[in-house]
UniProtKB/TrEMBL annotation, chain A:
Keywords: ATP-binding, Cell cycle, Cell division, Nucleotide-binding, Septation. It holds the Pfam family AAA_31. Belongs to the ParA family. MinD subfamily. ATPase required for the correct placement of the division site. Cell division inhibitors MinC and MinD act in concert to form an inhibitor capable of blocking formation of the polar Z ring septums. Rapidly oscillates between the poles of the cell to destabilize FtsZ filaments that have formed before they mature into polar Z rings. Interacts with MinC and FtsZ. This is Septum site-determining protein MinD.
UniProtKB/TrEMBL annotation, chain B:
Belongs to the MinE family. This is Cell division topological specificity factor. Keywords: Cell cycle, Cell division. Prevents the cell division inhibition by proteins MinC and MinD at internal division sites while permitting inhibition at polar sites. This ensures cell division at the proper site by restricting the formation of a division septum at the midpoint of the long axis of the cell.
Amino acid sequence: MARIIVVTSGKGGVGKTTTSASISTGLAKRGHKTVVIDFDVGLRNLDLIMNCERRVVYDFVNVIQGEATLNQALIKDKRVDTLYILPASQTREKEALTREGVEKVINELSETFDYIVCDSPAGIEHGAQMALYYADEAVVVTNPEVSSVRDSDRILGILQSKSRRAEMGQDPVKEHLLLTRYNADRVERGEMLSVQDVEEILAIPLLGVIPESQVVLNASNQGLPVILEEQSDAGQAYDDAVARLLGEEREHRFMTAQKKGFFSRMFKGG
Amino acid sequence: MSFFDYFRSKKNSTASVAKERLQIIVAHERGQRDQPDYLPQLQQELLQVIRKYVQINDDQVQVEVDRNDRCSVLELNVTLPEK
């Protein structure tokens, strides 16, 4: 039985796809057979972040509609052996994802994979609800910013009422907070919500804090999951998050500002 | 941070404003989320009944359901106008 993890947020642009790419790569790197599914039908992007955009032949919707087999649609990652990508369709409507169709694909993947990572589209509509419906765990990606925190709370409400686990009265979906684009300097200056603030408001356990970093854009430019930038702060923060997801205890890092001398604080700004 | 910011208190930081606003809106939205679907209609119909006897505005009737472990309580608050 595979563990099904949805990466979701409500708000767009907070780092869901970046996170899906890194978490799935991290899980696979640790030897777990992992597949990452792009649920953003119509706006396929995971393939680009994973650097397999030119290898897409068949997609998720093709498989659901019986136009291709799962093996034809799955793309094997070139960097990590145990990682596969199931790309979204670009041409169909979001409604092409039916609950039965998604269930069929997930059940088939469950037979051979250890982890299924579902990259949710933004919003709280059909596509997002399909992505989270079968989840066992949810990584709620949040930026330390008012609209993102509010939307995360909305998506938590949906996880608690509209997931399969909620509908069947099973144990609830296990929720994790992943705070991304965190700028400890601005937090220290009182310009940005702190980790503690967001934890207090959303009241779910913290999986990790990803510092705002130029490495993230540089990695996505090249189609490299940022977790593979092993020397970088963001890459290491994602690696910590994956370790915690697997039950390892790791101390949180990258949450405090670089210490600056008195003079540089007075005269250099920022 | 400029020279003068250094001496400024952190109390009125925009982050604390953000936190306060979020706490209020999130609590409000969570309250609504747990309410049964029939509540808005119930509120409308109660308003109509009350208006047969007393003139009140929409916002003078508040209906909420409080759920405890063993029972739910329907709480109805009607603010009557002063005579």
